[in-house]
Amino acid sequence: MDAVVLAQAAKVDTGDTAWMLAATALVLLMTPALGLFYAGLVRAKNTLNTFMMCIAAIAIAGVMWALVGYSLAFDGTGDLIGGLDYVGLHNVTFEPRDGTTIPHLVFMAFQATFCIITTALVSGAVVERMRFGAFMIFAALWSVLVYSVMAHWAFGGGWLIEGGTLDFAGGQRREA
After folding, report:
1. Which tens digits make up the pLDDT trace of 109-159?
2. DSSP letter (8 states) at residue 77
3. What residues have CB less than 8 Å from 77, skipping those under 6 apart?
4. How far is 27 from 31, CA to CA, in rounded Å?
5. Taking Cα atoms as reference points, which of 153, 25, 166, 150 lies closest to residue 79?
6. Residue from 84, 100, 140 nearest 8 by CA
């Protein structure tokens, strides 16, 4: 094996990584479950549309998060928005993210699940009021323009973190 790969593997904690992968899978499974829940609350003619909004959130929010959302949320230390160094997952590798013992890619995937479930939760507000195509456009815009910005504020070094906000939802740990 390559010496660089061995050096990187020495920094990754397998237990932490396994737990983060399990947590990522559990949060991701919440999205179809939410779709089933919402589908049970609507009239029969809207069941499929409602469920598909949640499933589409996985695809749309996941792609938008990987393309630009993760970079806006977790790159840089701007008060309002992050940078663009991670656009298209550039430099997001299996090397541990600074201050963690898990691969950077696993951290990105874990955070992506929250972008996805948040987008799916919003679908509950537009059930029976919005066409599927319009929701897909809304989901793409929401995941980048709203969720990424607020994730940066609360978890990625933005003004809420700098102001002393405590994060109990799995974001960055702040040392006293």
Report:
1. 999 999 999 999 999 899 888 899 999 999 999 999 999 999 998 888 788
2. -
3. 157
4. 7
5. 153
6. 100
